[in-house]
Fold this protein.
Amino acid sequence: MAQQGIAVVLCGISELDQLVEDYGLLDWFPHLYSFGSLEVKDFIATLNTIEEQYLRLPEASRLSEGQNLQTLALKTHSYIGKLIKIIQVATLRSLEKGFQKIDGKVLEKAAAKYGVPYKPPALTYLQASSPSGSTQSPQPALPPTSEPEGQPSE
């Protein structure tokens, strides 16, 4: 049977991810495939391998250094599909603009468009109870102050 060029798109909740994995199809959808928890050194090694063995651009893009590393780490969340898409788009756009490497600004634009949005850690909310047993609205949990005990703050 010949390939028809039809893309399959799955949309759903976490149970769909588990179902796809149970049937052994997770690798068919690279944007869903995660590296897992990579140590920084492993992520850097992966970027170096991509750059040196697959991209082979005339100039080094230095994906595993400085702002480029930070951009890719924040925007991929260790998803190989996201990493590949961002690097692919950034490479094509950089070459179209006449660069001999992946330009940092082009990489940031590709990461902003195709990457995972950064979400700051959520505040932990505590339910404050009154002596009468009723609960008040949630209050954000604040970190403890660094002032020594018994000394009032000014």
Q: What stands out?
A: Strands lie at 125-126, 139-140.
